[in-house]
Amino acid sequence: MKKLTLIGLLCAAFLLGYGFSRVTNPINSGPRVTGIGGIFFKAKDPAALKAWYSKNLGIRIGGFGSDFEWHQGMDSTKKGFTIWAPFKETTKYFQPSEKQFMINYRVEGLDQLLAKMKAAGILPVDSVQKASYGNFVHLMDPEGNKIELWEPNDVEFAKMSTITTK
């Protein structure tokens, strides 16, 4: 009976350890997209649109738009942000895309991801831009949509954020 209990405990410990390692060390670790960093879109009157979303949907608006704060994975101490921001209809920021929207993807390992994409023949449309709150670069997808890759520094972003969400 003791041997059976010991084997059961060892199996349970193995399964718990295996499960925990899958959560803390996911299969797709390394350079990759980890989430949506922001939704950017063109508007005829960004200020009026921001006011409408604030009044009617309760979105808290700051200098860039709104930043939705959340926590990364199972670690409630690690903040993350998703930006929502209308741009002037005449902005050149989305060029060379002719689309109205641009998605900003949060990434891990930006340099490694760019090297991997370069090896596949995918080149950025600009150079990596460094800011205190992270590094950015832009690419075009196969359908001509400009996308932004952002390797965030959420600690610095939280310091500069004008919006606090509860």
Automatic annotation (TrEMBL):
> What's the domain of life for this entry?
Bacteria
Gene Ontology molecular function: any one: dioxygenase activity
Which SUPFAM superfamilies does this one have?
Glyoxalase/Bleomycin resistance protein/Dihydroxybiphenyl dioxygenase
Q: Which UniProt keywords apply?
A: Dioxygenase, Oxidoreductase
The VOC domain extends over 35-152
- Kindly give the InterPro entries that the UniProt entry links to this protein: Glyas_Bleomycin-R_OHBP_Dase, Glyoxalase_6, VOC_core
Name recorded for this polypeptide: Catechol 2,3-dioxygenase
